Structure prediction request, 515 residues.
Amino acid sequence: MDVAIIGAAMTDFGDRDGWIRELLAEAGRACLDDAPVGGEAVEHCYVANMASGELEGQTGVMNALAHDLDLLPAYAERVDQTSASGAAGVFEAYQSVASGASEMTLLVGGEKMTHRETAETADLVASVTHPVEYRHGVTLPAFGAMAARLYMAEYDAPRESLAEVAVKNHHNATHNPYAQFQTEIDVETVLDSPMVNDPLRLYDYCPVSDGSAALLFCPVEEARKYTDEYVRVAGVAGATDTHVVHERPDPLAMEAVAESGEQAFEMAGWEPADIDVAELHDMVSVLEPLQLEALGFSERGQGWQAAVEGRTALDGSLPVNPSGGLKARGHPLGATGVAQVAELYWQLLGDAGSRQVTADRGLACNVGGFGNCVITSLLEVAG
Amino acid sequence: MSAGERSDARDSDRDLLAHRCPEGHLAYPGHTVCSECGEEQSETVDLSGRTAEVLTWTESVASPSGVRAPNTLAIVEFTVDGSSVRALGQTTEPVAIGETVEPVPVEQLRDPEESLRSVASQSWDGYRFAPV
Ligand SMILES: [Zn+2]
Prediction:
């Protein structure tokens, strides 16, 4: 069964006053207001969230949301796939409709993080690691720095080329009213910012964020009854890489990105050249070129050239992260994968305001762990 | 491998033991079965007396709870009978890609009392890598 998305919404990302229940309800309600149907039509309600219990001491957030939005007796379920929880929610929501189990599925992703000390959130996110990694105090941002050092050494990628990713994504976010950072930066801003994980600096990394995003899924035939304004999920697939990062034969290959991308392309009958716009998981700058390479948009070792040459800019041949990406839109863990697809929804329907690009087909790639788990989604505008 | 030996997995992790299956595939740490062929990992190889080469490294100042700051970390590569096996670990000081290092024992790599993970669930001692 073909699956459509008929509504999308997100909250402002950043340092928010609301707690997890309030953030989820804000995005969920806005999504239902945006869609041509009301909450009474919702049969399944998924909440993408990594750690509301650990971060806030609030568990069972999916049932709370179903009640707060008056969705009862809709079935509710929480989806945790670490930093890729949002896209795992997209996968679950897709499956619920494609299987016929639900005719109308609301997906809300969210995280509330900024109330905790930075060292505590770093520890929580790093708790995905194996004991032999965890006891050394490694973090996902530290893995990013080790990948960046190796990438620059192996492929002669200039340090500035990684900074260019952050510069581009900050620029894009100046056009996104939901983004956490709506400020321009330049390469010097990145290279003069404090060293965090040598050789990477503060502006190579996404911030800690609060926020929520939501999508409404139904069969395409159902969507047609209500609206011409919908997008079709053409492909969605997930894959898993080694739990222990140093066990990967090629530490720069992002095998789960490649595998999930190939499966999603096969499902859609598309290839990388068919994609007009992409939202990638730039938790750290080097991840954007590594995903471009793993997904087949760039040759191995050449992904860094894309931002330098402007090919991934808003007016480039393949705009990447028009939303500002994790770097500047922000990265409330469970919200990110949902917000990526919401951005594609707006771009494909021509509702992206001053960051609008020309696009009929889009790709979103959401990464958990340091590439441990990845979901790639492909979307196409209706008609 | 017997259930009794498997229950000592935490100690073998601490001891910097690579695990080897009958096909000769090496892995650190050990897993329930070999990642390459699915066979049980029936042997161990002690890496602690060997040298390794730095594949990549970082010096991190954004340490999680219970971890020293700055924290220098490296992924290093050992060569055992012509096969390579890698390990992640703290280093004693900043290092360089390609530099030769050796494991030195450390009683406590991070403070378990300050860390999120349950103290009894894993070992907290091990090895740092030091330039030779
Ligand atoms: Zn084997």
